Amino acid sequence: MAGLEVIEGNLPGVLSIRPRAFPDVRGFFTETYHADKYREAGIDRAFVQDNFSFSKARVLRGLHYQRKYPQGKLVYVVQGEIFDVAVDIRRGSPTFGQWEGHTLSGENHHQLYVPEGFAHGFVVLSETAAVMYKCTDLYRPDDDCGLLWNDAGLGIDWPVTTPVLSEKDASLPALVDLTEEDLPEFAHA
Fold it and tell me: Of 64, 102, 109, 110, which is the active-site residue?
């Protein structure tokens, strides 16, 4: 597709998206979202909420998900660099418990689409990072769930060993400690 390169991830539904950037002496221009182009690329979702976070070096946010109202997320970095992670936590999924990670930055303009039913998190690799993400469902505090970032059962190869965590993120459970009711269900195609 002209202006939009889409690469399927190792996990079903996870997409690495590389919009075309147009640099010149003033800076650059890039289209961060175009409904028709993204629908053609396989992301036929309505986004209902946009989120923005600004974080310092080594800040790790995640791994977060919503159980009853799962959110698909289209993540991109405005400034800085992050390592972005998606974990398949859909009970009954053939790739349950598997993860993949991608480096996103304000310079490479790459995006990551994390489908519904996946836990999501990222760690900041630069001095600071400004991160935007579009969500397919609204954030519901009473449905907020998460996994421990360094869950040994997941074996995520984070590029930092001592991240800066919120109190909440530091005390999240491991995947093995969650009940079936704590996890979103895998929807067969």
Answer: 64
- The architecture that CATH gives domain 4-182 is Sandwich (2.60)
What pLDDT, on the 0 to 100 scale, is given for residue 189? 53
Task: Give the alpha-carbon dihedral of 52, 40, 23, 53, to 10 degrees.
Answer: 10
Tell me the HSE value of 38 on the side-chain side, using a 13 A CA sphere: 21
Which is the catalytic residue, given 38, 76, 113, 133? 133
Q: Where are the beta strands (DSSP E) in 42-184?
A: 49-56, 60-66, 73-79, 81-88, 99-105, 111-114, 118-124, 128-135, 144-146
What is the residue whose two structure tokens read 């010149």?
24
* Minimum mean pLDDT range among 22-36, 50-64, 151-165: 22-36
- Contacts of residue 22, Cβ cutoff 8 Å, sequence gap at least 6: 28, 29, 30
Q: Computed over its alpha carbons, how large is the radius of gyration of the chain? A: 16
pTM value is: 0.94
Q: Work out the average pLDDT over 163-187.
A: 94
CA separation for the pair 109, 106 (Å, rounded): 5
Task: Write out pLDDT tens, residues 37-86.
Answer: 999 988 999 999 999 999 999 999 999 999 999 999 999 999 999 999 99
| Residue 133 among the catalytic residues | yes
The Cβ-side half-sphere exposure at 159, using a 13 Å CA radius, reads 17
